[in-house]
């Protein structure tokens, strides 16, 4: 923002291109205008989409031609943008922003093109359900069986409901628009914040490019989920906070301060983790500003940090009061924190984590991940050196330097705790912000250094290759994983690859004939259903069923046992879904059932699902050839096994 | 220029009000989409004008407008909820219209307060200090951007077509479920997803006898439903679905959980 308008004082004005930045070089990419690069990127999107189509037409993720097309398309997207941003040729602020926007839209379109007919990513179903419930009932805090904590953070649903109401669009289309805008805003605001923080739009552009190496950026952070929207607010708040600290006019400072406060409030009621991270960021910059002697900035950020902390605390207390005890934010995070602590304790005791791992990534993915980690570690070290040597009086850069510790912590979590891979992947959204800034500082210094400049285009090529490798690492090891890189035929119990028309129709049937999860005649007992991982999110979303986790014990035995009866009665299991396909192939995702953490090593026994068919008192209420639903409580109670 | 400096407010308010009217009048889909999008963004634009009244560059204005557009329904929704207003579609449209009208007032007040006494002198000074007109956007680049947009949108259309054509499992849903409000009755239901019209037969058994035989034809997506007398504890009820012309092989089966002489075929 500052960079574009140039409305700030000299203290934060964006530096113009230095002599080094204007050195001509032989790279062809650097000479291409942004419009031509945009066209190449659009062609890349088309080529990758052809890869998706090849997957759908046959072998899915095993389609060789599909994979080649997908990655060729990605290279068409990434290489021209990276080449232009990383070249030493002068790039205007508008061009840098345009390239970042083009890259963001291209990757978002690929996310849309993966499942263009409807939502397929698990978490999106949950917010589809929340939005639909809000529009039907008019209540803000409607129960959601799949994401109880999300009930207390209805920001995304509010915005989407407003758009659905105004336009008459279905929730899917409206959700794509809201998520797309929020995602693009996050990227643009982050770029602008970098411009202010680093005082160079060129380095800011490179930092954003490196940020695209974040594993969750093009997947989780662009899905129709509450974090996507909250990140947009986080970016808006950071920019507004920076402007409120550096604007010359007191009136302008006040105006930006108001925007920052509004952004904080919107973040707090939209997503828990993002609001905590925003608070941490504001406090971090306040501390860094104090350490570097920028008292005004420290005061502004300190006040905003305090407002954020108070808002977060107040909202946790309010939601704890409004929502049922089990759905509170504290309850939501308790298992994660306990698991992390236990994992770290195990790491301390044994030197290695006992965390179960379901990850069996191909060697190429693992290799590129290792290279990526090494590159990032080296760039962080070099960036920290640069920051200390040249910017030690700069509050934001020092703040970013301190923030890099988050990456180290995330690395520890990744290696040492259960679900560490996923947690670290999700945390990367935040930890990569300071990392990308420092990495950009290091890369720019490297490219501009005297000895390296002599090698001109060769060095640029190497740097472009390294950065593109980082981004490909993020894509390859992010989501969707390698076994569903391309859409394709139905896979057993495997997230998006298991979501098809049959699962959706079954869920809609369940909602129509079984009623929603809270429609049980007994108010104390909900219509719970046990189901495999494949249909689980669809039952929660479209079906509005109270689908249970960790239910493999129901499918293990060829006979209905007393232990199962006790367990099922205790958990009020009302319905059980079985899918014949689970007896025919192993789940590429690792486990058959949600919440299980022991990878399946053999297919499910047919006797385990056939058992329901011959047990007295268990009604077979639905059959579509593959999926069968049994009613365990057809007689009003879970039947006791006959002796 | 000065004469038209409030034109944006009037246009935004006008389009937003049309959006509200379109909702009330239930105009055809595409018109409502266009006007609805305008209504959705109008409060964001006006409030970003009101709060950040400084002359922001174009891209900044777009981004702050979009940011405020996403923030306002959230905070406004909480306000309505606090006032006891049910947040169904009319309330959301009403909220957007109210936010737009308040935004008009706020932006107008801010602009009035900013008009200096000697506006003409200010305007002259501004013109003198104004930076040179930005370069015109070359037509060639605009054309290339346009082609890129077409290619990108074509990729979406291509993906939709590809997903539509994807081969999926052909199946038929067969259900027998208690009526939620009357446990003495149940629905027998069949829905066809065979990709074409199919003839079905349902045989309903009670106390080991056929009590009903239903024959019907369903096209793709078509449904059949019958209400039957039901018991969960008294005697066995079982229903077999046959896909004609094969009336010997049970295609799908449902029952009430009471085991007896008749059995559903083994799974798979």
Q: What can you tell me about this protein's structure?
A:
The complex is a heterodimer of chains A (643) and B (268). Chain A has 24 helices and 5 strands. Chain A is mostly helical and 643 residues long. Chain A has a domain of 137 residues. Chain A has a 5-stranded mixed beta sheet. In chain A, β1, α22 and β2 form a beta-alpha-beta unit. Chain A is globular. With 268 residues, chain B is α+β, with helices and mostly antiparallel strands. Chain B folds into 2 domains: 130 residues, no CATH class; 85 residues, Immunoglobulin-like (Sandwich). The termini of chain B are far apart.
Provide keyphrases for this structure.
heterodimer; A: 643 residues; mainly alpha; 61% helix; globular; B: 268 residues; alpha+beta; Immunoglobulin-like; 2 domains; 3-stranded antiparallel beta sheet; 6 helices; 7 strands; elongated
Estimate the mean pLDDT confidence of chain B. 90
Q: Helix-strand pattern of chain B, N to C?
A: HHHHHHEEEEEEE
How far apart lie the N and C ends of chain B? 76 Å
Strand order in space, largest sheet of chain B: 4-3-6-7
Total number of strands of chain A? 5
Measured as a percent range, the helix fraction of chain A is 55-70%
Detail the topology: elements first, then pairings:
The complex is a heterodimer of chains A (643) and B (268).
Chain A: H1 2-5, H2 28-31, H3 34-57, H4 64-86, H5 93-114, H6 122-137, H7 155-167, H8 171-198, H9 201-211, H10 226-246, H11 250-268, H12 272-291, H13 295-322, H14 329-350, H15 363-390, H16 395-403, H17 405-416, H18 420-448, H19 450-453, H20 457-476, H21 501-513, E1 528-530, H22 536-541, E2 546-548, H23 562-570, E3 573-579, H24 606-610, E4 619-623, E5 627-631
Parallel strand pairs in A: 1-2, 1-3
Antiparallel strand pairs in A: 3-5, 4-5
Chain B: H1 7-25, H2 29-51, H3 58-82, H4 89-114, H5 119-129, H6 139-165, E1 171-179, E2 182-193, E3 198-206, E4 209-218, E5 223-229, E6 237-243, E7 252-255
Antiparallel strand pairs in B: 1-2, 2-5, 3-4, 3-6, 6-7
Helix pairs in contact in B: 1-2, 1-4, 2-3, 2-4, 3-4
């Amino acid at each position: 923002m500052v960079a574009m308008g140039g409305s700030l004082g000299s203290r934060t004005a964006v530096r113009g291109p230095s002599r080094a930045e204007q050195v001509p070089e032989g790279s062809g990419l650097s000479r291409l205008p942004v419009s031509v690069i945009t066209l190449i990127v659009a062609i890349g999107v088309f080529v990758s989409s052809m890869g998706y189509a090849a997957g759908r037409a046959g072998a899915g993720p095993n389609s060789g031609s599909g994979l080649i097309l997908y990655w060729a398309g990605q290279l068409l997207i990434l290489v021209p943008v990276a080449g232009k941003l990383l070249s030493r040729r002068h790039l205007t602020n508008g061009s840098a922003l345009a390239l970042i926007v083009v890259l963001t839209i291209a990757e978002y379109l690929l996310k849309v093109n993966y499942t263009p007919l409807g939502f397929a990513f698990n978490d999106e179903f949950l917010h589809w359900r929340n939005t639909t419930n809000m529009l039907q009932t008019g209540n803000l805090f409607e129960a959601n069986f799949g994401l109880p904590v999300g009930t207390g953070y209805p920001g995304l649903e509010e915005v989407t409901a407003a758009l659905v109401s105004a336009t008459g669009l279905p929730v899917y289309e409206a959700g794509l628009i809201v998520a797309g805008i929020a995602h693009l805003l996050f990227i643009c605001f982050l770029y602008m914040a970098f411009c202010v923080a680093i005082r160079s739009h060129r380095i800011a552009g490179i930092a954003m490019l490196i940020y695209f190496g974040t594993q969750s950026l093009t997947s989780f952070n662009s899905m129709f989920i509450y974090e996507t929207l909250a990140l947009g607010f986080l970016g808006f708040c950071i920019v507004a906070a920076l402007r409120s600290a550096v604007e010359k006019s007191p009136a302008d400072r006040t105006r930006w301060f108001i925007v920052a406060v509004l952004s904080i409030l919107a973040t707090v009621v939209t997503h828990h983790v993002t609001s905590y991270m925003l608070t941490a960021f504001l406090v971090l910059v306040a501390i860094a500003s104090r350490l570097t002697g920028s008292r005004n900035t420290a005061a502004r950020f300190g006040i905003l940090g305090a407002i954020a902390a108070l808002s977060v605390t107040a909202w946790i207390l309010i939601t704890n009061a409004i929502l049922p005890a089990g759905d509170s934010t504290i309850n939501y995070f308790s298992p994660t924190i306990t698991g992390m602590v236990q994992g770290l304790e195990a790491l301390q005791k044994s030197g290695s984590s006992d965390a179960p791992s379901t990850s069996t990534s191909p060697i190429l993915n693992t290799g590129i991940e290792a290279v990526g980690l090494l590159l990032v570690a080296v760039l962080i070290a070099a960036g920290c050196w640069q920051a200390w040597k040249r910017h030690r009086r700069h509050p934001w850069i020092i703040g970013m330097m301190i923030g890099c510790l988050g990456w180290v912590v995330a690395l520890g979590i990744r290696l040492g705790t259960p679900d560490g891979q996923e947690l670290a992947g999700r945390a990367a959204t935040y930890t990569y912000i300071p990392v990308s800034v420092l990495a950009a500082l290091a890369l720019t210094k490297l490219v501009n250094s005297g000895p390296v400049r002599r090698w001109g285009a060769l060095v640029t090529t190497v740097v472009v290759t390294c950065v593109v490798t980082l981004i490909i690492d993020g894509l390859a090891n992010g989501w969707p994983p390698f076994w569903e890189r391309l859409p394709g035929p139905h896979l057993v119990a495997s997230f998006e690859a298991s979501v098809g028309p049959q699962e959706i129709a079954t869920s809609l049937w369940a909602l129509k004939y079984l009623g929603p999860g809270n429609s049980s005649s007994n108010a104390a007992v909900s219509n719970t259903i046990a189901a495999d991982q494949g249909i689980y999110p669809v039952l929660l979303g479209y079906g509005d069923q109270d689908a249970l986790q960790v239910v493999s014990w129901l499918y293990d035995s060829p006979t209905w046992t007393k232990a199962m009866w006790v367990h099922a009665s205790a958990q009020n299991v009302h319905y059980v879904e079985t899918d014949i396909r689970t007896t025919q192939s192993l789940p590429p995702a690792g486990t058959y059932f949600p919440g299980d953490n022991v990878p399946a090593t053999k297919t499910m026994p047919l006797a385990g699902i056939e058992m329901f068919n011959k047990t007295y008192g268990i009604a077979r209420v639905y059959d579509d050839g593959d999926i069968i639903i049994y009613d365990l409580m057809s007689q009003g109670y879970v039947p006791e096994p006959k002796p | 220029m000065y004469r038209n400096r409030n034109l944006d407010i009037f246009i935004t308010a006008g389009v937003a009000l049309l959006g509200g009217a379109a909702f009330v009048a239930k105009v055809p889909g595409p018109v409502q989409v266009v006007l609805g999008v305008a209504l959705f963004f109008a409060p964001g634009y006006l409030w970003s004008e009101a709060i950040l009244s400084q002359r922001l560059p174009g891209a900044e204005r777009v981004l702050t407008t979009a940011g405020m557009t996403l923030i306002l329904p959230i905070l406004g929704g909480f306000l309505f909820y606090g006032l006891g207003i049910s947040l169904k579609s009319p309330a959301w449209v009403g909220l957007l219209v109210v936010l737009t009208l308040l935004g008009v007032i706020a932006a107008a007040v801010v602009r009035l307060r900013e008009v200096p006494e000697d506006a003409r002198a200010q305007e002259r000074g501004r013109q003198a200090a104004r930076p040179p007109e930005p370069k015109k956007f070359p037509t060639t680049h605009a054309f290339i951007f346009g082609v890129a947009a077409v290619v990108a949108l074509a990729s979406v259309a291509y993906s939709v077509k590809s997903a539509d054509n994807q081969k999926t499992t052909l199946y038929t849903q067969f259900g027998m479920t208690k009526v939620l409000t009357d446990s003495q009755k149940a629905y027998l239901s069949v829905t066809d997803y065979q990709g074409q019209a199919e003839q079905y037969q349902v045989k309903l058994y009670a106390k080991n006898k056929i009590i009903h035989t239903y024959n019907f034809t369903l096209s793709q997506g078509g449904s059949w439903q019958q209400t039957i007398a039901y018991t969960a504890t008294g005697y066995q009820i079982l229903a077999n679905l046959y896909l004609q012309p094969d009336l010997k092989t049970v295609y799908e089966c449902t029952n009430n959980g009471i085991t007896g002489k008749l059995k559903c075929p083994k799974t798979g």
